[in-house]
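This entry is listed below:
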Amino acid sequence: MTRCLLVATVLVTAFTLYCAPVPAEESAEEKQEEGFQPLFDGESFAGWRVSETTPESWKIEEGLLVLTGGSSHLFTKEEFGDFIVRFEWRPAKKGYNSGFFIRGCQIQMAEGGAGMLFGSEEAKGVPKLHHPPGQWNQWEVSCIGPKVSLKVNGKPAWEIDNFKPLRGPLGIEAEGHTIEFRKMRIKRFPEDQ
């Protein structure tokens, strides 16, 4: 009886080890994300300055940062120099208008002109690279010294090499339209830390 119990225990243990899940290899996306830190935790406005005059323009809903309309700005409490920022945004309907600020300067998020960097003749809007309202758009903005580039949905939109200022906050503009944001993360370079 003891021998049967011992054999059964060995067989169960061997079977359990054989069937144990093998850790999956790191996906390409996970490897790409190495060194990135969240800018938005999905639960609070930690690290952000919410406008005191129109706080109702912003809310957090199901892990998303939601611009509910209204008119105000949301800026990071911290300023950044050299970095790459990645995030996704989704306008609710046609006619949307907002903006994303890098080092205090705005990249347009308006229908028909999304991607345009205010004050730059070279960084024009790229509406054809954007998905229609109701679908998520992915942006990657790289700021290294005076060199700044934008990728939209994985495709290069523009690159300039004369951008100023060299340091400033990140931000989002509320301009009366519902837009959702998620997966906001940043990779800072050692010189910036």
User: Anything to note?
Assistant: The longest helix spans residues 2-19. The radius of gyration is 23 Å. The longest strand covers residues 71-80. The mean pLDDT is 85.
